[in-house]
Design brief:
The chain is flat, with a radius of gyration of 26 Å. Helix 4 (95-108) runs antiparallel to helix 5 (115-125). The two termini are 31 Å apart. The protein is of the alpha/beta class. Helices cover 39% and strands 21% of the residues. Strand 2 (143-149), helix 6 (158-168) and strand 3 form a beta-alpha-beta unit. The strands form two sheets. Strands 1-2-3 form a three-stranded mixed sheet, with helices on one face. A three-stranded mixed sheet has the order 5-4-6. The chain has three domains: 14-66; 75-184, no CATH class; 187-275, no CATH class. It contains eight helices and six strands, in the order H-H-H-H-H-E-E-H-E-E-H-H-E-E. InterPro entries: Baseplate_assembly_J_pred (IPR014507). Keywords: Plasmid. This is Baseplate J/gp47 family protein.
Length: 276
């Protein structure tokens, strides 16, 4: 969900704050109006200092406010937010993973569960669980759970699958009528070839940096059951010195099954020139 940056107090430019201070001062000191536009007077220097101090103070207030929202929280503040919902980070768990687990736990408490609840429980079960997909069909009410491991390759070991299955099947956690099938996710590797045009004055390294940027952006996604679309590749390749992208490979969108996680194989970047 793309939301605007949250603020608790309006952020004003130093110039606007400076002008407002001058206007207030001039309203009480009519003689000041004659020299109000001079920037070398003692009053101007004082007003400039106060305007920049207020500018940074407003930014700081908004930064502190944001730090108490889950999306922006980190460290101890995030742990306190988790404690409010009865959760705490596990050993070795990153802030981003704990944040993901916390959001799922909150969503799983609503009537929209238990899909989000079971995803949250699977992440609770073991820090090695990187991602989870939960689904069932009308013909078979069994709750299917695919586990993507944080281990290299993403394949969940039998030990990890057993840990997850035991944890979610506990009488205090499961819905009485649910039956589970816990299995490892399947990794599907897709090679990518992009033809890109650099901006007129872009660094020569812009094309070389694209591969690392694409891999980082894809790894940040919830990969299980996520299709790799040509539109995603174009959207995430644009910018940072690149102004046009043509996807040479894959030739069509790659569809992922619910238990599949697509991995990026080789990424071949072809520089087709420069332009505006």
């Amino acid at each position: 969900m793309n939301l605007p940056e949250p603020t608790i107090i309006e952020e004003l430019s130093p110039e606007r704050i400076y002008q407002e201070i001058k206007d207030i001062y001039a309203s009480y000191n009519p003689d000041f109006k004659e020299i109000a536009d001079l920037e070398t007077t003692p009053e101007a220097k004082t007003f400039q200092a106060f305007s920049y101090r207020e500018f940074h103070l407003r930014q700081r207030i908004n930064d502190v406010f944001k730090s108490y929202l889950i999306e922006y929280a980190e460290g101890v503040t995030l742990h306190h937010l988790g404690a409010f919902y009865g959760l705490s980070p596990t050993t070795g768990e990153s802030d981003e993973r704990f944040k993901k687990r916390l959001k799922l736990a909150i969503a799983g408490r609503s009537a929209a569960g238990p899909k989000e609840r079971y995803k949250a429980l699977c992440l609770d079960a073991d820090v090695r669980v990187r991602d989870v997909n939960v689904w069932s069909s009308a013909l078979d009410p069994t709750v299917n759970i695919a586990v993507l491991s944080s281990d290299p390759g993403g394949i969940a070991s039998q030990d990890l699958l057993d840990t997850v299955a035991t944890y979610i099947d506990h009488p205090e956690r499961r819905v009485t009528s649910d039956e589970f099938k816990v299995s490892s996710a399947v990794k599907k590797v897709v090679n990518v070839t992009l033809s890109v045009q650099l901006e007129e004055f872009a660094r020569n390294s812009a094309g070389e940096e694209l591969e690392a940027n694409l891999r980082a952006a894809w790894d940040a996604e919830d990969l299980l059951g996520l299709d790799l679309t040509r539109a995603w590749l174009i959207r995430n390749a644009m910018g940072n010195g690149i102004n046009n992208v043509k996807v040479e490979q894959p030739f069509a969108d790659v569809v992922a099954e619910p238990n599949e996680a697509i991995g990026l194989g080789t990424i071949n970047v072809i520089i087709s020139g420069r332009g505006r």
